[in-house]
């Protein structure tokens, strides 16, 4: 079991993730990614899928052609947890690599 | 350019796709797929991605853990076209194989 972040912890975490925004219902963080085409978008999704499976923490996500929208939330915690923050950082690191 | 199906052609096509339902805004057809886990769901998505890239006709789709929701529509036609019907059949064939 993992705890939902309190307000202070959430604020600290989000300060380090400027590309992600806080969303409600469910409480989580989301980011939109735009690629050159579907092939590039799906290649990114494949890498995120591997991260997600390894962490056993899976995104709510959608794709339309070159666009990927990712929402991270922790259903068991009823909101945003450290697992979401860690996954967001790992996803961002894919793009930096 | 591909034409939007007229009412008669749409009705004929949907009669052969009982698992797909007609949706509005955008006009298209959608189907929900449920798998045993994320790994199985994403393996299916990888196969659909290959079909989509080959046909140059890409789904609007989302995934949450073991669930994949696919919407097929033809933006250029302003609605449902034969390309969507062909893609739905190809996707269904993946599950039958």
TrEMBL record, chains A, B:
Q: What is its EC number?
A: 4.2.1.96
Q: Which UniProt keywords apply?
A: Lyase
Gene Ontology biological-process entries: tetrahydrobiopterin biosynthetic process
Broad enzyme group: lyase
Report the InterPro entries cross-referenced here.
PCD_sf (IPR036428), Pterin_deHydtase (IPR001533)
One matching Pfam family is Pterin_4a
Give the catalytic activity. Answer: (4aS,6R)-4a-hydroxy-L-erythro-5,6,7,8-tetrahydrobiopterin = (6R)-L-erythro-6,7-dihydrobiopterin + H2O
GO molecular function list: 4-alpha-hydroxytetrahydrobiopterin dehydratase activity
Q: Which family does it belong to?
A: Belongs to the pterin-4-alpha-carbinolamine dehydratase family.
Protein name in UniProt: Putative pterin-4-alpha-carbinolamine dehydratase
Species name? Sphingobium fontiphilum
Q: Which lineage is the organism of this entry classified under, starting from the top rank?
A: Bacteria, Pseudomonadati, Pseudomonadota, Alphaproteobacteria, Sphingomonadales
